[in-house]
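Researcher: Please predict.
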Amino acid sequence: NATASMALKLIPKSLETQPVFLCIDDTIVPKYGKKFEDVSKLFDHSAHNGSGYLNGHCFVSVMLCVPVWDKDKIVYQALPLSYRMWQKEESKLKLAASMVRQAMPELQGKANVIILCDSWYTKGDLVSVVDEYPNLGLIGNARYDSVLYDLAPQPTGKRGRPAKHGKRLSVERDFTLSDEKIGGYYIGKRRILTNIFGTREVLAYVTATKKEGGSRRLFFSTVFPTQLQFFCAWQEKAPLNQTGSAWMDYIPLFLYAFRWNIEVGYYEQKTFWSLCSYMVRSRKGIEMLVNLINIAYCAMKLLPYQDEAFSKYRKESVQDFRFALSERIRQEVFFATFVKKSENIIKSSALMRTLKYLVRQKEHYL
């Protein structure tokens, strides 16, 4: 919640109506020893070990994405809020839902908070959280074979219970794809009902790389374009920066692209922040250490917005900023300890003058 509060302070007043996103996903940390608490055999689709199974821990995490200005463009700064270790006694969906509930008190003042998730999380236990908060929506990838229905027909006035939904829809036959590619895909859309969302009407999007044949992907959105106040013209990248009434119908689908930020966050933390290198054995200790690393990572990403001396690193890569930050810390330690504790009797006067000169130069440039 403290990270979420700090992140929300980055949003300038001119962008307060823009939606913020809660990206949800899980990541696997392989561990070769078996003495770690709750270590188990897990399936990892990205593992290249011949079987796809490995020993390790699975962490569910939530990332908050907030809009900020970069000159005359809107970019979204992504900050992971927390990590929770998955135990098989509780499903990942329930774990993710509890993490969203924990974050929502800080986000009550936002007009639109949108959960972004893949097809694993677009299921009942997480979807049900959307009904608990009036400003919360969900845009998610869904299984291709999800059951879809047309909207309920108008009452006919005849005796009997009215139909709860219309005919069953087919992803292949009942979605008319656009004549031209939009954002790299042919896209079909319509309002539908599905068992996942109960009686709530949602938008269903179907995307395809080919007009005829080829594979299709299915997406659900509880957020409708009319609910959004989204500044398309100032967005950093296409297709979100395209304008026109025809494009607005597809804005919820384009917003799903922000989910990729959580994958980038996993890569940066594992590669440059030693997220996988813990040697603590207890479950509580592991969770505390992983979240401590996460706090340090978030503090680094927030620093360029809190201190003008580091503002040039807002668009720099994580590894470049981390290296520059470590160099500054090393200099601080050297000048704060070595210079103050040096003995005038032992050190030559020339060395002392040089060190004091360096201190003055450092203070001048900072």
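Model: The first helix runs from residue 2 to 8.
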